Recover the amino acids of this structure.
């Protein structure tokens, strides 16, 4: 499929002109500024770029003609004539966000205003050694695009949040060998004919929180993605931390029970086996099958196999004592692990996200009690524990940020990107 060639480095390079190169780079800088900071006046843009008012005026007019920028009317006066404000046209480009979980995948379309403009496309499918999931995602995405009526050529990229060990540079999954020896990103690129960027789901969540959530403006924040597993995304010194090999954040895989249950990583007694959404769902299924009395029975039509983490949270919110007890034990175990993180990283905030994040105080209260036992009090005092306000949107918003950041990072590295 052809991509709309507005703001194309490839077109510019054909001219091999230093003047066109400078114009291209200035357009890139202005669009990036409007993306990161929102409405700006021409004087604001001039100060940020170091360019003259006439040059900025001409460039803004070109971006308006190209449909990428809108005149947002008159702004407030700071002395003298009130300036016109300019912003990105939210309908000029779109990003496809894909949040792949172990048991289900969510797909959404986002505009340049970070708004999700489609209904969620949900595919219930367990990750297996079968590349057909890519075709299912592609077909569901086409359905969403058709329903929204947007022009496919306005899609600039695909961001994919994926569980497990992900090599962000190559797009290879080191945990789920679903797609033979080819990078996961290549399978998606072949289908969508668009740039595709794949990243670990916890790090994508951290990106979403950093740009659009509770981590905005903060330098040292740890984001826990507690769903089927437990992942950790780290914002350290204001930047997403990936580690030496790009695999940092496997928080769910340190031992808490030496003779514990077998984990999917192949080791025993990992935190994930006692404090993840899958762990509490499995425990509830067994207890209910053995006759435990709980609202969970009514919520699942007395079918224990239908219990998942969200069902447990819902039961707790209905004041079911069994479900509250499960979450309390989970919070205590999480607290032991989080105490280690606090002692090592001294973060200003820890954000709990994923399906279990919706449990809020049912998790945080027992977690805090556990921290009182295991964390160094002077370090703990400076760390705020909160639940995500973005909830299930954090990964999709993070996927959006991943695509835009990669495109702005260096268009020379991604010559097929057409912004």
């Amino acid at each position: 499929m052809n991509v709309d060639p507005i703001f194309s480095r490839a077109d510019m390079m054909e001219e091999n002109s230093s003047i066109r190169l400078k114009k291209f780079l200035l357009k890139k800088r202005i669009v990036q500024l409007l993306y990161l900071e929102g409405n700006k006046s021409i004087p604001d843009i001039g100060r940020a770029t170091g360019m003259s008012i006439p040059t900025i005026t001409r460039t803004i007019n070109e971006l308006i003609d190209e449909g990428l920028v809108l005149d947002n009317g008159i702004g407030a006066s700071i002395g003298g004539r009130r300036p016109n404000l300019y912003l990105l046209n939210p309908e000029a480009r779109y990003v496809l966000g894909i949040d792949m979980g172990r048991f289900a995948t969510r797909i959404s379309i986002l505009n340049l205003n970070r708004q999700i403009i489609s209904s969620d496309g949900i595919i219930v499918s367990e990750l297996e050694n079968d590349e057909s999931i890519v075709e299912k995602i592609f077909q569901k995405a086409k359905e969403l695009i058709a329903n929204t009526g947007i022009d496919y050529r306005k899609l600039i990229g695909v961001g994919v949040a994926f569980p497990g060990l992900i090599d962000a540079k190559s797009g290879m999954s080191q945990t789920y060998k679903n797609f033979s020896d080819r990078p996961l990103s290549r399978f998606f690129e072949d289908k969508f004919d668009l740039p595709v960027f794949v990243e670990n789901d916890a790090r994508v969540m951290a990106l979403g929180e950093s740009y659009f959530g509770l981590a905005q403006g903060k330098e040292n924040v740890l984001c826990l993605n507690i769903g089927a597993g437990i992942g950790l995304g780290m914002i350290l010194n204001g930047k997403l931390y990936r580690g030496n090999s790009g695999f940092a954040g496997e928080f769910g895989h340190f031992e808490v029970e030496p003779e514990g249950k077998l984990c999917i990583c192949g080791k025993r007694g990992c935190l994930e086996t006692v404090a993840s959404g899958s762990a509490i769902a499995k425990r509830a299924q067994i207890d209910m099958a053995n006759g435990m009395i709980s609202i969970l029975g009514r919520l699942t039509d007395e079918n224990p196999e239908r219990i998942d983490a969200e069902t447990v949270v819902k039961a707790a919110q209905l004041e079911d004592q069994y479900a509250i007890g499960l979450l309390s034990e989970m919070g205590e175990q999480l607290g032991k692990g989080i105490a280690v993180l606090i002692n090592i990283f001294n973060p200003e905030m820890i954000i709990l996200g994923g399906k279990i994040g919706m449990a809020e105080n049912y998790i945080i209260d027992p977690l805090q009690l556990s921290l009182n036992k295991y964390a160094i009090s002077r370090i703990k005092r400076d760390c705020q524990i909160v639940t995500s306000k973005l909830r299930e949107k954090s990964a999709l918003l993070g996927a959006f940020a991943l695509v835009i950041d990669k495109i702005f990072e260096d268009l020379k590295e991604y010559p097929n990107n057409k912004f």
Notes: The first strand starts at residue 40 and ends at 41. The domain at 9-88 is CATH 1.10.10.10 (Arc Repressor Mutant, subunit A). The CA atoms of residues 107 and 141 lie 7 Å apart.
